[in-house]
Amino acid sequence: MYVIAFTSADQQNSSSFLSNYARHQNICHMIGYEPKCKKDCQGKVIAFHAILSTNLNNVPKGTIIKFGKVEFNDGNGYYPSTGKFTAPVDGIYSFLWTYHIKKGSSVYLCGFVNGKLRAYTGTHLNATPWQNKSAHFVAKLKRGDQFWVETYHHSAAFIHKSFTYLLDTKLMDVKV
């Protein structure tokens, strides 16, 4: 099962992301949803939030974006040196990436799983002074599967560091 959604987004900082994450967990608890797993699953939260650490200019097509400023990395699945997330366990994972570009920029950042293009987002010749774009992708991954965000279609003219990030959370354990 795969779900893909695209939207323009306002900036979301780390504290608001963590607040939203806690609120979602609380809502699940209030409606009676609790993960069904064995004792060994307790405490195995898999989630990360990483931000682009430098502005990027003229990024060639096919470049994996390395989000170098890691806010948190529960489960240690994200590797900032490679820009890749490696699933530590089988499960359904939710990925969200947002990027910020300036007027005249064309940028396509797509989500890949094990080298296969799975989710698209992009802007061609942005007409506004600044613009945020976001994409959301949900995937069933096996342990060892990898996800990353990569430039696609052509080189990316400019990507701003302060408003560009990648985050993930494991929604649930499943056998794949």
UniProtKB/TrEMBL annotation:
Domain C1q residue range list: 41-176
One Pfam family in the UniProt entry: C1q
Record's keyword annotation contains Secreted: yes
Keywords: Secreted
Localization annotation: Secreted
Top-rank lineage group of the source organism: Eukaryota
Main location: secreted
A Gene Ontology cellular-component term: extracellular region
SUPFAM superfamilies according to UniProt: TNF-like (SSF49842)
InterPro entries: C1q_dom (IPR001073), Collagen/C1q_domain (IPR050392), Tumour_necrosis_fac-like_dom (IPR008983)
Protein name as annotated: C1q domain-containing protein
